[in-house]
Amino acid sequence: MSEWITPDWPAPQRVRACSTTRQGGHSLAPWDSLNPAAHVGDTPAHVMRNRQHIAETLALSAMPQWLDQVHGNAVVRLPAACALPQADAAITREPGVVCAIMTADCLPVVFCSKDGIEVAAAHAGWRGLCNGVLEQTLARFHCPASEVYAWLGPAIGPGAFEVGAEVRQAFMAHDARAEAAFRPAGAKYFADIWLLAEQRLLSAGVISVSGSRRCTFTEEQDFFSFRRDGVTGRMATLIWLQ
């Protein structure tokens, strides 16, 4: 068990990124223990201690810039004009500015340009993914998608992510190849959110897509999972430029 997951991807040295696990924090059950989310019912003082622990352990020069995530496809450029912008992705070219998203089954995706000038992070639940949050994030880069690296973080795996037929149809309406990411489960389907994201990224022009394929639902000791537990904490996925 570890507090951190570091992407295995070909990012330039000045690009720093990680995903937290649920280990090493101060929150009590059911948010135990490294929960940085202030919107899930946890004790505010514990959340602040967890956020401070993340910033200190990673030697961040500034606190992460959190988002008001709404399962949409809006992208904000950081530093932002307001303290808690409503968006599901963030991008920056400013050293020391930390793009941050929170997940507990949804897919976190981090991006960097091959030249190490620009980084971004996106929160890709199935709604945001289907509605183009990854494509919208790529569109904000100053370079073409073919010059962007992407890394897919821990999310609910294809053996646990049960969805209705309407979700499958929504993805297939965009691209019929999405059918490969769905496996029948009675009247519903199991969905592979990593494959769906990879399909979208490759179709948008990204050449290099890496990922951990670690399942938040089944790896209970390391990850929060909303589908598994309901009331629970969140993991943070962060990316910044040194």
Automatic annotation (TrEMBL):
Keywords: Hydrolase, Metal-binding, Oxidoreductase, Transferase, Zinc
Residues in coiled coil: none
Transmembrane segments: none
UniProt GO molecular function: oxidoreductase activity
Catalyzed reactions: S-methyl-5'-thioadenosine + phosphate = 5-(methylsulfanyl)-alpha-D-ribose 1-phosphate + adenine; adenosine + phosphate = alpha-D-ribose 1-phosphate + adenine; inosine + phosphate = alpha-D-ribose 1-phosphate + hypoxanthine; adenosine + H2O + H(+) = inosine + NH4(+)
Pfam name, any one: Cu-oxidase_4
Membership in a protein family: Belongs to the purine nucleoside phosphorylase YfiH/LACC1 family.
PANTHER family assigned: PURINE NUCLEOSIDE PHOSPHORYLASE LACC1, UNCHARACTERIZED PROTEIN YFIH
Protein name (Swiss-Prot/TrEMBL): Purine nucleoside phosphorylase
Recorded name of the encoding gene: pgeF
